[in-house]
Amino acid sequence: MLLTTTPNIEGHRINQYYGIVTGETIIGANAFKDFMASIHDFFGGRASSYESTLVEAKETAMREMKKRAENMGANAVIGIDIDYETVGDTGSMLMVSCSGTAVRID
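Given the sequence above, the corresponding structure tokens read:
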């Protein structure tokens, strides 16, 4: 399955459009909030444990989107957009969502 942020895939023709497909995941954002609160301590540096949590959440959402596209009969998703948001009354959760267009290419 080819996943891309572009609206087309060079060298491939889109034979069928299946429609919008999404993937979502929500994770506890306490670590994320701790990171934001102590950003001044990390200014200029990287907080690899927090980055790995964000990467894991993104990969989970992308995997979910890919699975849904496959179930539709697609072999690619184009125009992918990834969003990160805090949710909950206190912003204690982090939601990662992605969306794109499921297509069949040759």
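Strands lie at 2-3, 14-28, 76-87, 93-105. Try to locate this feature in the token string yourself.
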